[in-house]
Amino acid sequence: MAAIIEFKNVNKYYGTYHALKDINLSIDEGEVVSVIGPSGAGKSTLIRTINGLEGISSGVLDVDGHDLADKRTDLNKIRRDVGMVFQHFNLYENHTVLENIMLAPRIVLHRDEQENRQLAEKLLKQVGLLDKEEAYPRQLSGGQKQRVAIARSLAMKPKVLLFDEPTSALDPEMIQDVLDVMKNIAAQGMTMVVVTHEMGFAREVSDRVIFFDQGTVLEDSRNPQDFFEHPHHMRAQEFLSKVIDR
């Protein structure tokens, strides 16, 4: 598989704060990568650089053949191809569920209206919410809103889908429905980078687990089962001992 995302000696500063430290990562097409680690480690900053929501301070970040550090790179094109599912949904409250999904493809891609509606309805069916197409976000639970947000990202037919702690704002009983949708997307071959606190998802669905702390990659395992059973880095051992019962 060819690499679709490559970090080469990437650094990110906020003033004097060194948020990302000499990151070297290569993510292949079709890979499902879970990024785990303690809060404040820089995980969200890491994935927000992939679609240009955060700029890098130095190094090279190549996404689908485009250098994001090059001022000539069209970040809007990158964001069309690299979808993002946020922690807090970001749905348009004054639009129905169906319109939320159809809006970006209509404005950005100028997709044919009938084709746009058919795809939106297909995606709503995929996330189990076709019966909610005329509902407004305020009428949905948090888990339902997040599934709509996922469908909205898929409607752009992205090459990569980023998830920034997609279940952390949800009530516990709503988390599994969202995780099931994510598992389904992963099974279809989508390239996914997932910042998550859901260790079960990282263990069962990921092709690869990256343990991140203090702005750096401490472990990068292509055998998630082995990582969770035998983490090598002491910081990873300490983290896992607190978050899961192994």
Automatic annotation (TrEMBL):
SMART domains xref list: AAA (SM00382)
MF term (GO), any: ATP binding
InterPro entries recorded: AAA+_ATPase, ABC_ATPase_HisP-typ, ABC_transporter-like_ATP-bd, ABC_transporter-like_CS, MetN_ABC_transporter-like, P-loop_NTPase
Sorted UniProt keywords: ATP-binding, Nucleotide-binding, Transport
Family listed: Belongs to the ABC transporter superfamily.
Residue ranges annotated for the ABC transporter domain, each copy included: 5-239
Protein name, per record: Amino acid ABC transporter ATP-binding protein
